[in-house]
Amino acid sequence: MSDAPLNKLVAQINGHLERFEHAGPEDDEQRISVGLLLIAARDSVQRGKWYDWLKANIKRSIRDCQKAIAVAHAPDPHRKLAEQRKKNRQYALRHRKSLTPTRREHYRPAAVVGRGASCSSRAERHRSSRR
Asked: Which pLDDT does position 41 carry in this prediction?
């Protein structure tokens, strides 16, 4: 296949990806479309050059592209996206729980911790509240 159709696919894929950086379920159709476009691109790229092509042309990680392709291949893409979101939430929750209490302070909104407070004063307040 010539480069012109591939260049068009690259522009479409990157355009879709930029539009929903942190989108929710309302953008599921676009996510599925990205997966389908990636599948079309993969079929057009020379065998053995797929990962190199992704790194050179797509503005997302290889893992993100693999997830999009998995969604597009799924028998029920909407269910697959919901499962991915659930898994991401569980991972984020485990990560937050793994933080020590003083490190957790850095992840709290400013309104909760107090605007302008330094890290050391927040840690000090935390220690004094535990006494």
From this structure: 92
